[in-house]
Task: inverse folding
């Protein structure tokens, strides 16, 4: 028999996938314009024109063998230099091209880093609510997941709870800010306290604890809010970045790993990243995309649409009586379910053709994720349905 | 400490990489035109124009969100349909779109399939000479490598030797035809005998033994030679394909896995492939490349250059006194080292600025790989040096 574990993983449809399939069914039955699908995290705005212009220019003008040939496994040297420069410019950090490793997107950044870091049985802390695939990635890399719930009032870290789960076996903690699914941005105070706690516990246990900063949503913040750059606060940090959301390129799979130049034994750690990338079969990140992002660093798709959607949705829903923390970033609103069982609430929402995702898989029961990377028109049309839905509970 | 194994893997430069770095040094010292670098397997001919035309057309005309958005994890349904149709047309096979899984190239095809198949301790047979990364991929997936040498006279399978290494724990055998590094194509008789032997041993042990057909070089054959399509000969086959070599797109990372519709429990096996792809962090194959290969199925780069190079190199080297089996495919010539130690021979070759790869890492000592995916001019210029080199042994 082949791997039962992989088979189960392949068979088990994620909840989001189930909802998506249900949505397809309803769209075929009543027309796409009558289904309010808030389930997916697929950017709804086009890539900026400059991305397509750069791609066409590269295809037309860069020699084929240079453009489409292998880059080094770590990524093209010029691309890594540009990214390091960009990091240093934006965050006054000390990034070095030789500590940048180009990847096929955020998921690859995470699996490569986890496989580089973990020995069998090492523990990885996840702050709930968290992206459900983290659990899959950690377990496949031989790790054991430990979860801690963030504070309900603002989705910042609950440090008393966090301190309790950190043990001698804790190898890493994944930080995802702006957060999927809460939209919360961990503020400067939280990151400072986190660094203090991790340093204290690492000293106490005589271990190293790594922060994996999963940052696909870094550029998606509103009101010019600061997203603290974790390597500036905590030394043993690996940044897992992706251009998927900021440039609306999720299908193209392009991102990078940055091993902080302040991390202990950063050279060895970077070597482990290279080894893991190799052993998992990544070879190199797609070359056309590497050369493309180099030319558009600092650019984003027109994310003002998301901010508009957030304001519209948050203001309307809270006025109807829903409870939610106003999201500062990403494109998710995480509302409290008006009944204890978020699954039951999402079932009821289907009556109004509202497709929402229960928070259970994100490690946060009693909450529901609403993705607002959709058209503003759809939100406007859906609002009366949200109102009818909550009125059922009054 | 993070993973020692991954760190070592990242630090250990491959022999090919060492030679490449040495080549860079020499190129800077004496000029690129005076260094005869036969070490790399990077296609030297451009992608066919149609590839770039299709890419530009897609970028200009397909809506951004559709082009650059996530495809399903298995790959776009239309792309998979086109690939299945193409397989069926070419090989009278019974491929189904729902058994095709798009990947980031051949390495990803292999790691995903190995992680789908293997439980810890399962054995995987490699036929030497073999691509050195196979060992890395198998071991990372929890498997144990068993090697068998192919026959020196023609690099077909030595069935007596193969039968000896197949045990109750044998889960898979990797078949790479046309072969890197020998250029050998396993003929119809060999594949027929292989199927018989595997069926016999699987019956004997009451197990399933899978063939992983690693086929990045399928289209690179000369004199219209047949490359038998293994799913037509053996049921439990998974084809790991890549467009890297045939379309000269190795940096773009695009390929696929095809689970034979005749494999036992093919649905479960395909589910395990999906699970492994997910757990390793692949998400989906690059979307632009998926849509591109759909439009150019059956096309190849101008591989006549490789055939010309093969003839030139093989005829000249054997006339000087080198021993080699004439390669029928891929772009490698595997010559017998005129001294027992191929490493010593490759060192000596450097005197003539000839950069060659010893066969040791391919599991075949006393042989040397010469990549002829280089310019014909370079080969012409290098031939007198090859002659001087062998004359040292006369």
Result:
């Amino acid at each position: 028999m082949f791997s039962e574990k992989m088979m189960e993983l392949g068979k088990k449809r994620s909840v989001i996938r189930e909802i998506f399939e249900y949505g397809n069914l309803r769209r075929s039955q009543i027309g796409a314009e009558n289904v309010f699908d808030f389930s997916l995290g697929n950017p709804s705005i086009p890539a900026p024109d400059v991305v397509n212009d750069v791609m066409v220019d590269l295809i037309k003008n860069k020699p084929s063998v240079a453009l489409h040939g292998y880059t080094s496994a770590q990524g093209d040297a010029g691309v890594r230099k540009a990214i390091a420069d960009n990091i240093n410019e934006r965050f006054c950090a000390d990034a070095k091209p030789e500590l940048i490793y180009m990847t096929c997107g955020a998921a690859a950044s995470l699996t490569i880093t986890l496989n580089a870091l973990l020995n069998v049985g090492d523990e990885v802390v996840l702050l709930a609510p968290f992206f459900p695939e983290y659990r899959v990635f950690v377990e496949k890399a031989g790790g054991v997941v430990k979860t801690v719930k963030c504070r309900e009032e603002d989705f910042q870290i609950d440090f008393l709870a966090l301190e309790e789960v950190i043990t001698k076996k804790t190898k890493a903690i994944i930080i995802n800010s702006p957060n999927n699914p809460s939209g919360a941005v961990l503020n400067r105070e939280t990151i400072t306290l986190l660094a203090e706690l991790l340093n204290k516990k690492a000293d106490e246990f005589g271990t190293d604890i790594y922060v994996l900063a999963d940052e696909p949503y870094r550029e998606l913040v509103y009101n010019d809010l600061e997203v603290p750059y974790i390597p500036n606060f905590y030394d043993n940090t690996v940044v897992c970045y992706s251009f998927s959301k900021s440039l609306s390129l999720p299908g193209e799979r392009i991102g990078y790993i940055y091993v902080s130049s302040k991390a202990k034994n950063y050279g060895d750690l970077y070597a482990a990243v290279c080894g893991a990338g190799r052993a998992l079969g990544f070879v190199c990140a797609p070359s056309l995309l590497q050369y493309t992002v180099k030319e558009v660093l600092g650019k984003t798709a027109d994310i003002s649409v998301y901010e508009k959607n957030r304001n519209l949705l948050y203001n309307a829903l809270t006025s109807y009586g829903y409870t939610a923390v106003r999201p500062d970033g990403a494109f998710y609103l995480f509302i409290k379910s008006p009944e204890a069982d978020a699954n039951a609430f999402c079932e009821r929402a289907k009556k109004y053709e509202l497709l929402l995702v229960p928070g259970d898989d994100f490690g946060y029961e009693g909450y529901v994720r609403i993705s607002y990377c959709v058209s503003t028109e759809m939100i406007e049309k859906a609002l009366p349905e949200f109102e009818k839905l909550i009125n059922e509970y009054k």
Remarks:
- Chain B has a mean pLDDT of 96.
- Chain B has two domains: 4-47+301-391, 50-295.
- Chain B has 14 helices and twelve strands.
